[in-house]
Amino acid sequence: MSRPLASPPLAVFAYDFDGTLAPGNMQEHAFIPDELGMAHADFWAEAGRLAQAQRGDTILAYMHLMLEKARERGLELTLDSWRRRGASLRLFPGVEDWFARQNGRAAALGLDLRHFIISSGNRELIEGSPIAPWFERVYASAFMFNAAGEAIGPALAINYTGKTQYLFRINKWTLNEWDHEAINAVQADRDRAVPFDRIAFFGDGLTDIPVMRVMTDHGGHPVAVYDPETPITEAAAARLLRDGRARLAAGGDYREGSELDALAAELLQTMARGVSAELFA
Length: 281
What we know:
With 281 residues, this protein is an alpha/beta fold. The chain is built from 11 helices and 7 strands. Strand 6, helix 10 and strand 7 form a beta-alpha-beta unit.
């Protein structure tokens, strides 16, 4: 007997940001070195030393250091200032046109495609980028702001293992970061809003390995993306494939007709076929 599904069924493309939608680290385009006046390699080395000295998390360390260095230089730290910085983020070719094209393909296949970010980078910078309106949610490390609107410290730090919880938030459609009750409530797989076989995750490196492992173990679609101009990132993607972390890989060219674009089209077709099979299960 067939059973009803949400109409149209939800499908999800989730993305890391740095190295996946954009080359390099976002802070290096929007904050370092121009505003901090230091080489980005020196900044990351200092953040690493701070994390080790404090036996702390590297994400919290870099966020603390961003604010500390900014205060030393008298930089503006309001939410609007961070979003203005994000407006200058450099994206891979074709990214700005990618989302509408994939949404159109999904709709033609009877799917309602939603896009999410799951990143260790800065939420405020991503929210200022030209592609921010396409995302259902931006799950990324974020600052806490005081009554005067100034960033005063980390409010949310998403490290490599922390990323995995957001897959389950999407899977259950319990999207609020602060809601720990709904995400931990018992829910049968068949009752979840977006089964893993209708979720694809696009990532590029070590911080995405736990997410890719979860995707693989639950029947999702982990995709390794690399910078075509940086051989070391292509080697990293090949390693993710070889180690069974990713199932597919392509260069970060999001233009129509690219390898990655063709891969996305095939993923949507696979998801649509899964919906048809589920209807008559």
